[in-house]
Design a protein that fits this description.
The protein has 259 residues and is of the alpha/beta class. The protein has a single domain, classed as Nucleoside phosphorylase domain (Rossmann fold), CATH 3.40.50. The chain is built from 6 helices and 13 strands. The strands form 2 sheets. It has a 7-stranded mixed sheet. α3 links the parallel β10 and β11. α1 packs parallel to α4 and α2 crosses α6. The longest helix has 17 residues.
């Protein structure tokens, strides 16, 4: 089964969905999972912000969401999300299949190992080495201008960056900015599931050189909704490929050396 976390504005894409309530040791996930078929593959879908977008990024129950995916039988997770661009060449409407992240959040529950059992996750490469090339090919087959790789800096939210913060991120050489990739990505890895991100660029962040209007949530949703058709096509290409590709990556055994 393939899991999909929904991003802002992306809540309903399954054929004949069935709602499944899953309780976890970390409480309830953001919403009941919806299971059904998509492109002929069994898929579990979960809106990370909740069905009514009631969870801001810093309040998303990330541990419960990740655990629910594992509990229901998912072994590969796709995490589409909206991002701002920190570089001119990464334009609104483009897709980025991230290969790195920088975590600038705080106070979030970012591990399943709070003690007394302690494990130290090797996280040099946050995204699945097998899923990433499949995602790039799928996005390009959908006709999207696609960037193979890019670093996403994850901010706390729910506010957007100041101009000074955004300029600092851009000067660091990072490509895109988001509020939810951490701790989502590392929690999925701790459960030994595969994870790939497809980032939909909705705006230029305010640190991009030139006169950039401050981003608003309404503008992000509008641009994300405009990209839903392309994203759906990309998922329709990616999900069957992911389902039929045997897992030979390190994600499945990543915790073996984490003691």
């Amino acid at each position: 089964m393939i899991g999909v976390f929904g991003g802002s504005g992306f809540y309903d894409f399954l054929d004949n969905p069935r709602e499944v309530a899953v309780e976890t040791p970390y409480g309830s996930p953001s919403a009941p999972l919806a299971t059904g078929s998509f492109a002929g593959v069994d898929v579990a879908f979960l809106p990370r912000h909740g069905a009514d977008h009631q969870f801001p990024a810093h309040k998303v129950p990330y541990r419960a969401n990740a655990w629910a995916m594992k509990e229901i039988g998912v072994d590969r997770v796709i995490g589409p999300c909206a991002v701002g661009s920190l570089k001119r060449e990464v334009a609104p409407g483009h897709l980025v299949v991230s290969d790195q992240l920088v975590d600038r959040t705080w106070g979030r529950d970012g591990t399943f190992f709070d003690g007394p059992e302690t494990r130290h996750l090797a996280f040099a490469d946050p995204y699945c080495s097998e899923l990433r090339p499949l995602a790039v090919a799928a996005c390009r087959s959908a006709g999207a201008e696609t960037h193979d790789g890019g670093t996403v800096v994850v901010i706390q939210g729910p506010r957007f960056s100041t101009r000074a913060e955004s300029e600092s991120f851009a000067q660091s050489g990072w490509e895109i900015i988001n509020m939810t990739q951490a701790p989502e990505a590392q929690l999925i890895r701790e459960l030994e599931l595969c994870y790939v991100n497809i980032a939909v660029v909705t705006d230029y962040d305010t640190g991009v050189e030139g006169e950039i209007e401050p981003v608003t949530h309404a503008a992000v949703l509008q641009r994300f909704n405009e990209s839903l058709g392309t994203l759906r096509e990309a998922l329709a290409a990616l999900i069957p490929e992911a389902a039929k590709t045997p897992r030979a990556c390190q994600c499945a055994t990543g915790m073996a050396a984490a003691g």
